Amino acid sequence: xTVLLSxxxxxxxxxxxxxxxxxxxxxxxxxxxxxxxxxVETMLPGANCGGCGxxxxxxxxxxxxxxxxxxxxxxxxxxxxxxxxxxTYLGKVAPEKEPTVATVRCGGVCSKRPRTxxxxxxxxxxxxxxxxxxxxxxAYGCLGYGDCVEACQFDAIxxxxxxxxxxxxxDKCTACGACVKACPKKIIELRKKWPKNRAxxxxxxxxxxxxxxxxxxxxxxxxxxxxxxxxxxxxITVEGGVAYIDSQKCKLCRKCVNECPTGAIALVGLAxxxxxxxxxxxxxxxxxxxxxxxxxxxxxxxxNEQK
Amino acid sequence: MKTFxxxxxxxxxxxxxxxxxxxxxxxxxxxxxxxxxxxxGAPATAKVAKGDKVLTGQLIAEAxxxxxxxxxxxxxxxxxxxxxxLNGQGLRQMMITIKREGDEWMPEIDRSAEIKRECNLDxxxxxxxxxxxxxxxxxxxxxPTHVKLSIPNGCKAExxxxxxxxxxxxxxxxxxxxxxxxxxxxxxxEILKKALNVEKAIIGIENNKPDAIAxxxxxxxxKQFAVTVEPLKVQxxxxxxxxxxxxxxxxxxxxxxxxxxxxxxxxxNASTSVAIYxxxxxxxxxxxxxxTITGKSLKEPRNLLTRMGTPVAKxxxxxxxxxEGDVKVVNGGPMMGRAMVNLxxxxxxxxxxxxxxxxxxxxxxxxxxxxxxxxxVSACPMGLEPYLISKMSKKQMWxxxxxxxxxxxxxxxxxxYTCPAGLPLLDYIRLGKQTVMGIIRARAAANAPKK
Amino acid sequence: MANxxxxxxxxxxxxxxxxxxxxRDVIIALLPALAVSVWVYGLNVLLVTAVAVVxxxxxxxxxxxxxxxxxxxxxxxxxVVTGVLLAFNLPSNIPLWIVVIGAAVAIGVAKMxxxxxxxxxxxxxxxxxxxxxxxxxxxxxxxxxxxxxxYVDTFSGATPLAAVKANxxxxxxxxxxxxxxxxxxxxxxEIASLALIIGGLYMLWRKVITWHIPVAVLGTxxxxxxxxxxxxxxxxxxxxxxxxxxxxxxxxxxxxFMATDYVTSPMTHKGMLIYGVGIGLIxxxxxxxxxxxxxxxxxxxxxxxxxxxxxxYVKPKRFGLMxxx
Lengths: 307, 451, 325
Fold this sequence. Notes:
The complex is a heterotrimer.
Chain A: H1 2-28, H2 35-43, H3 57-66, H4 79-90, E1 100-104, E2 118-119, H5 125-131, H6 147-151, E3 157-160, E4 165-168, H7 178-182, E5 188-192, E6 199-202, H8 210-216, H9 226-230, E7 236-239, E8 242-245, H10 255-259, E9 265-268, H11 283-297
Antiparallel strand pairs in A: 1-5, 3-4, 6-9, 7-8
Helix pairs in contact in A: 2-3
Chain B: E1 23-25, E2 31-35, E3 45-46, E4 53-54, E5 59-62, E6 71-72, E7 77-86, E8 92-100, H1 123-132, H2 145-149, E9 159-163, H3 173-180, H4 182-196, E10 200-206, H5 210-223, E11 228-232, H6 241-249, E12 265-269, H7 270-282, E13 288-294, E14 302-307, H8 312-318, E15 326-331, E16 338-340, E17 353-358, H9 375-379, H10 386-394, H11 398-403, H12 414-418, H13 425-447
Parallel strand pairs in B: 1-14, 9-10, 9-12, 10-11, 13-17
Antiparallel strand pairs in B: 2-8, 3-5, 4-7, 5-6, 7-8, 13-14, 15-16, 15-17
Helix pairs in contact in B: 1-4, 3-5, 4-7, 10-13
Chain C: E1 4-7, H1 19-41, H2 44-68, H3 78-88, H4 96-111, H5 124-135, H6 137-141, H7 160-165, H8 176-181, H9 193-205, H10 212-231, H11 237-247, H12 251-258, H13 269-289, H14 296-313
């Protein structure tokens, strides 16, 4: 009996002692924090993807609470709705941004871009990219080792084994930008997201001269500029031997698609325009005048979008 | 026998394929491509334009700043282009293309066979001549030699170490140079001693080249050179600069930004020493070098005296062409060389050999999971933990790899060579090292204005 | 061009060692001890070993196929090594169904639960053995008598360690030569001291292991025993006690084959020495003052648990900081 009692007594004393120590330690190391941070954090998606530029959702929540002007903050995953709810809760003004989607700008599928060698090193674009040109003769195209796939937390990007090129699932993509950072070739761009995932973009970033590009890949942009001439919205620029369609200016008119001699302009979710004999160049200024005001009406606010 | 203090591996040296082949002069190429950046530092600035006539040994590109090197025409003829061309890795690089017409040399170059030992120039004049001749480290690192010889303030050179180790498997260009041009090499050492004002000069040679050791020792005794030859244990990477200094002097170069000169050592490659002799005594710039073309499967491995800018394909052709089937053509040796995809790319100042691996040798072993056997840790000559920094680099833990001293890595490849699981350890370590160096540079740049 | 060009970062050559070749060398190194054991205990030894190996490989194959997924890893022979080592830790007359249970625990619980080779924190064979020791203490400690030669039982059927612990015999009465050639009761693989040393030398020669762990373990044990002998008055005990402790029980098997298990031992030479000393100390403490006559398995498992800590805090010598300059 005494054994039992002494056991209970010892344990109780030990327990109380530990509790007292814990209490004082907790008091000493207590951190005062704005309770709103916890609240805001629960409103964020909790993906901790870093798409906002902070280390994680907690850091973003802290910034949201601490900064008076939150116009520079944006959670690409939660989107406008999420930003709005947080701003209402905090009594601040939410920034507005158009939804964007990651776009892989390389059309050099296996059949169009012949392989010249076999890479046997670590399967990582970041390792292979500084080493050499890649398994094809194009130094700009998608390597297909999937650094972007590794970076994506939303299972939205996959390397298609048939084409050897990364493909984005636009419905899953949250435009967090992780893949954009992960791609050493800078092929992936966040572009304006149209309804039904429609898109028109130049699916090539090769800065090689036309002849060199042609030799390496049949689907490459040779920088001929035909698309830029036909564009009624000045959305297309040709720089460094490669055309670029500004997704904020593009109206998906699809005229450029038919012009491209190599088929480097990708068209998604839309049928191509019927082939016309030739678009008269004179039509351009007229189209511009009529289209411009409309463009304003669509509320095309300037967005500082990543290159 | 002396060796370095930590790690190391013993790959089979495969020197037998070419070590007994005397150096042959390769016939002059019809067209050469001369990259402007074939040394560490800023690429040279082209001094010629399309249509210009040049003579052999004429300056065609000038060093851009101190950390750069001059480039001279290896042949005489007409410049046909100064444009982007594909290098060995299939990437575009600025090159000067020259079409050959005869072989007319610059008149001031002494082409006689006579060996000139006496040198009355002072240190500054010697270094100036070396700089003019565009000499860079010919062991592969291509560090401009005049920069190495310009001792920073507060430092004092005590040892001149000539690197005749050639620890890379297969390669034999330094070996043949030591055998065939021993006297010139030793005069080069004398000149270097004068330039650096040092007393002790040691030639480190791996013990798998007993003929070279004996030959140089005989020359030193006969012609009374104040140089010693130090045979070193056959162990890779004995020829790594830091490893060689530690083996010969027992001193260890401190971690980055520590330099060899901080322990009083200057290391210079054996072939570079011959080039220095030619530059100082014969006015001959660095326009040709001995290149080993070798491989188990080649019909005729060779050591060829090759003009810079000669297409690698020409060397391969001289060796009997590529074998059938799977191949890997490596610019350099198999431990540190770079795999090539474009054989039309030119031989450059740092190209000591071209190794052709074929069949099973060409591909890697399949990677399994790490079994934590600790072989990489034992093999690392810098005392790192490759398994750990490789894994952390793969996970992009840049802060972690920096504190694990990834910048100490000399990329020798011992870890990956020894890994029984066949893991691509160095692939990721190299990635991590490059990234961390970038972060360190960015940090330095960000901190600079504050002080 | 008919050539297929391969490209990869350097290095472009690789040593001949692979996981499979290393494991094969371990198996070869274990064969002499197995042969001695067959000589001492008869063919039953082979049966126990075969059952252990087959069940280990089978469990690994099945778990890989139906639970873990991914390519089968039985080709790297690590399951075979686990099987042999498990068998080496069992009495030769153990019921075979117990062997199968041991293999199930070793592979299923200690190895595959953590993701297979390279990820297990504890030595699988030892986990299997300790599980069996606790679950089936009677079967695990009833050893057959050696059948070879003119064996004279001085231990009353117990292992030398148990006999000494129970004060049945004095250490000075033990025939050390018999212990060297395996003429003593014990687990089937731990008795052949000389054969185990030969196996260890083979692994050193083939560069499968380094000297650090075995030397640290055995050195610590010998030193400890010598100190104890000194306390007891010295004399011939000075060499008898260390020799007895090195050859008795699982000391050699543990130090050479179990403690050197790659996955569960430290990565640096310094760490290996600390780990080895720890095993030696704990083993001796258990042997001399613990409830069990033998403490090798517990000591190794305990130090396995410490290994991650050692890896974190014990770093290799860094080049450039050693010389005075």
